[in-house]
Structures are given as C-alpha cells and as structure tokens.
C-alpha cells in the first residue's frame, strides 16, 4: 500500500516539535547537575556556607528544569506507539530495550536522587548528601547514554538482522548495540554540549546579578565555577565533535556529503567549505570559500581517502535498490515456502539492501514492478535537504567556537578577579540563548540529516507511520501544541520568577539594599 504523505509529514512534524521542545530541558539538566556537584564538593571540603547556599539556589532552578524534562519526555515516547506503530513493530525488539532502561533510570533512579537532594540537607550527613548529588549528576548522564544508544542504532543499525519468519528486525548482539561507535561519539558530544549549556546558564544569570549589584559575592563565585567548567566543556564539545564527524563520514556518507554540500567527489583530501550558497537545482555551491584538506582530515583522518559526493552516492543507491528488490522478492518467496533454499540464499546475500527497495513503497505497492525511472526517483529521495543541513551545521560550529572564546575570556577575568566589567557582563548575559540554538541545530543535523530513513538503510520514514488519517494526526498535533505551549508558559514563568528573586529573595543570601550596579567605568 502506498503511504499517505500527509500522515507521514504530520507525524514527522509532531515528533519534531515534541523532540525539539524536550531537548530544551535535557542538556540543561545534564549541565546543572554537574555544576551542583562541583559547588557542593567545595562546600564539603571547605565548610563555607556560601557554597551550600549556591548549591541550594541553583538546585531550585535545576529542579524546575528537571520536572519539565520528565513531563515532556513521557509524551514524546508515547508517540512511538501512537504515530509510529509500524516502526515500533518492525524494530521494537532492538529499539525498545535501551528506551525502557532509560525510562526506568529517569523515573526511578533520577527521581529518587532528586528527592534525596532536595529533602536530605538536614536528614543526612554532608558527605552522604554530596554522594547523592554526585550520583544524581552521573545518573542524568547515564540516562542520556541509554537514549543515545537507542538513537545511535537508528543512525547505525548494528547488532541486528532481519528475520524473514517474523518479518521484523531482531537483536543478534546486544553487546554490539550498546558498544555502537556512533553511540559513543554521540554520547560524549551531547553531554559535553549539556555541560556547556549549564555553565552558560549559571554564567549569564550571575552576570545579570552583577549588572544590578545584587548578590555580588555569590554571583562572582558562581561565575568563577561556570567559567572554569564551561571552558573545559566547550573545548570538549569541539574536540569530541571531531569524533562525531568521523563516525558520520564512516556510517552516514550521504549526511556528510549534504552537510558539506559536496555534489561531486573531490580528490583526497577534501576541502572544508566555510561559506557558500548551495543550489539544489544546479548542484553547485555558489560563492564557496574553502579551506583545503580540512574536511578530508576531519572526515577520514587521512590525506588519501576521498569523501564521496552526493551524485556518486545517488548512483550507489540505485545499485543498492536493485539488490534490495532481489532481497524483497526472496522474502516474499520465503513467506510462502520457508524451506526454499535458493530464496534464502538470495535474501542472505542482499538482506542489507532490502531497506533500499522499501524506498519504492513511497511510490508504488510492489517494488518488484519498479521501472528505471522509479528506481532513479527512489535514489534521488536519499538526498536530504542540503541547504538546511549546510547552514545548521555551520551556525552550530560558530556557536561552539564562540563559547570557547567567551568562557576563555571569563576564565581569564576570574583568575584576575575582574568580574565587574559592564561590557563583559552584558555580553555574558545576552549569550544565554546561544547554547539552546546550538543544541537544537545539532539535533536538526543529526535527525533531519538522516532522512529519508527512520533506521539508516533499513526502514524508510514513510513506512514507519501508523495507519491513521491526516485528521486524526491533526487533532493530536493540535493537542500537543496547546499542551506544550502551556508548559512553556509555566516553565518560563517559574524560571524567571526564581531567577529574579535570586538567593536573597529566597532567603539564602542577605539582601543588599545599598548595592550599586556595575557601571561602564568599571569595564
């Protein structure tokens, strides 16, 4: 049956909106949890109450963000059953396990530790409470690990094979699923980005207090921790991002070519395009400014390995579609006679290409009846939206470089005890949204760049959707938009309310009615 493009498009839009919204909270949870652990460690080691008050205040903002992350994560996961039923049926044996582990960790382990963090200050010793905080920081990262293992399998489906008897993908090696190299690269890169976001959050709000002359000692100490931790995290994002780029060039060559707007295979080592205007119609990148060798070194870590271009990868897809049709035909034969040795041999030989034959399902009921024109159309559909990926990646990288400069400068000023320059504080405050911009763009590069695949090379997105009508999806989409808009209003209100109150407004810091805001003269 030819799938309804409206249902698929609306289901994709709904999942994208919920995922992007959920990802507003997850990285901040990762970063703030480690910031709390660092601050409380100083408190336990020195016994100075100021560090306890700092941990408690930033813990309030952490708690609000954590609650919102859990609430939005639940609704997102429900969509696998409601909007992506065939996806859940086809790959649920593999995808469901890490997703379930992540759910248990988020609800039970993290939830228990969050309760102990907030209600254990006067009930357990300092050292025990510190251990709770560190376990909470580790638990948030471990929770992210399992969801990233699930997501990485969508990018690089290892440790699994198609079973013609059950007509599903099944696990062959759970060890390979867990140790997926893409998962490792995505994990370290994502958590480092979260640490950067947490540091920027503390840095920016502390700058706001200093600009108004409030909680000065509190804010300066917070900024010092944020500058140190943020610099290390920002450097890690760039360094570990190189590993993530290498894994993409190894396992998702079309995504890499689209990110670079590389229409043709260049002689090795390929250059990196700093700036350009990709033209999808002419397959050219106008006004391109390139850095020789850089892309080849990043993508292949060599000077003699080429990175294939989009046109070459489309030609490869045509070959794989042809092989996939043979596998698809053999699968249907085995459904009628599971003892057919010849059909089993053909399926074994070409089973890794069967997903490419399924790309034809978007255009026809039976891939075996495909004409050369149909195969060309399916091969062309393997090219994602090049301009979107090209610019999303470059803006994300530009943000990463900016974070290094800002945190490096903040660290230098902190070491000189000069955290009172109005120009610096203003820049630090207005930089607050940038980690979210970078994180959301990173998600777009990773997920939008995988299209047209739900599971890379295995299951096209168009086949994963549930058997719903467009009207039904519109109803659920509208409900999610209303629900998430309400949550956004509540979250924004609470975060602004408690950030404006500050530690003095919450009784954690003595009020300073005589405080004088920082002036331009102190820049």
Automatic annotation (TrEMBL):
What is the first-listed, main subcellular location in coarse terms? membrane
In terms of superkingdom, the source organism counts as: Bacteria
Known InterPro entries for this protein? Cyt-d_ubiquinol_oxidase_su_1 (IPR002585)
Q: Per the UniProt record, which residue ranges are transmembrane? A: 20-45, 57-74, 94-119, 131-154, 193-211, 223-241, 391-412, 424-446, 473-496
Q: Does the keyword GTP-binding apply?
A: no
Where in or outside the cell it occurs: the entry states: Cell inner membrane
Molecular function, one GO term: heme binding
Q: Which controlled-vocabulary keywords does the entry list?
A: Cell inner membrane, Cell membrane, Electron transport, Heme, Iron, Membrane, Metal-binding, Transmembrane, Transmembrane helix, Transport
Q: How does it sit in the membrane?
A: Multi-pass membrane protein
Q: Name one Pfam family in it.
A: Cyt_bd_oxida_I
Q: Which residues form the signal peptide?
A: none
An example GO BP is: aerobic electron transport chain
Q: GO terms for CC?
A: cytochrome complex; plasma membrane
Query: To which protein family does this belong?
Result: Belongs to the cytochrome ubiquinol oxidase subunit 1 family.
**What protein am I looking at?**
Cytochrome bd-I ubiquinol oxidase subunit 1 apoprotein
Taxonomic classification: Bacteria, Pseudomonadati, Pseudomonadota, Gammaproteobacteria, Lysobacterales
């Amino acid at each position: 049956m030819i799938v309804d493009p409206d249902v698929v498009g609306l289901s994709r839009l709904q999942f994208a909106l919920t995922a992007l919204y959920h990802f507003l909270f997850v990285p901040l949870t990762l970063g703030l949890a480690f910031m709390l652990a660092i601050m409380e460690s100083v408190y336990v080691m020195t016994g100075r109450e100021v560090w306890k008050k700092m941990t408690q205040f930033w813990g309030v903002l952490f708690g609000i963000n954590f609650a919102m992350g859990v609430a939005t994560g639940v609704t997102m996961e429900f969509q696998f059953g409601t909007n992506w039923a065939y996806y859940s049926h086809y790959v649920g044996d593999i995808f469901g396990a890490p997703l379930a582990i992540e759910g248990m960790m988020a609800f039970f382990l993290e939830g228990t530790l969050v309760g102990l963090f907030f209600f254990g200050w006067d009930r357990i010793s300092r050292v025990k409470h510190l251990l709770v905080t560190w376990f909470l920081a580790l638990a948030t990262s471990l929770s992210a690990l399992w969801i990233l293992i699930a997501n990485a399998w969508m990018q690089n489906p290892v440790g699994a094979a198609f079973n013609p008897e059950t007509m599903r993908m099944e696990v062959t090696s759970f060890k390979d699923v867990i140790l997926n190299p893409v998962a490792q690269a995505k994990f370290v890169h994502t958590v480092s980005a979260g640490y950067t976001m947490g540091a920027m959050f503390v840095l920016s709000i502390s700058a706001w207090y200093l600009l108004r002359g409030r909680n000065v000692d509190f804010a300066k100490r917070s900024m010092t921790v944020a500058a140190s931790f943020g610099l290390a995290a920002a450097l890690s994002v760039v360094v570990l991002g190189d590993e993530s780029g290498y894994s993409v060039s190894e396992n998702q060559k079309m995504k890499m070519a689209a990110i670079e707007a590389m229409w043709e295979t260049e002689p090795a080592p390929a250059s990196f395009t700093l700036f350009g205007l990709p033209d999808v119609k002419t397959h050219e990148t106008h006004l391109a400014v390139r850095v020789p060798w850089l892309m080849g070194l990043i993508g292949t870590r060599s000077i003699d390995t080429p990175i294939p271009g989009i046109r070459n990868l489309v030609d490869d897809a045509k070959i794989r579609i042809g092989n996939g049709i043979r596998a698809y035909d053999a699968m249907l034969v085995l459904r009628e006679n599971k003892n057919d040795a010849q059909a089993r041999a053909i399926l074994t030989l070409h089973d890794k290409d069967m997903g490419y034959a399924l790309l034809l399902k978007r255009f026809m009921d039976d891939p075996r009846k495909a004409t050369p024109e149909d195969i060309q159309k399916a091969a062309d559909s393997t090219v994602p939206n090049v301009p979107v990926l090209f610019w999303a990646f470059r803006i994300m990288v530009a943000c990463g470089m900016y974070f290094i400069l800002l945190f490096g400068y903040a660290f230098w000023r902190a070491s000189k005890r000069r955290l009172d320059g109005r120009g610096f504080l203003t820049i630090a405050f207005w930089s607050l949204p940038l980690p979210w911009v970078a994180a959301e763009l990173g998600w777009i590069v990773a997920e939008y760049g995988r299209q047209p695949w739900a599971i890379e090379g295995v299951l096209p997105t168009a086949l994963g959707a549930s058997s719903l009508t467009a009207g039904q999806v519109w109803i659920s989409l509208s409900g999610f938009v209303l629900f998430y808009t309400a949550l956004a209003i509540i979250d924004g209100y609470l975060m602004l309310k408690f950030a404006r109150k500050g530690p003095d407004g919450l009784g954690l810091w003595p009020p300073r009615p005589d405080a004088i805001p920082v002036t331009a003269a102190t820049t």
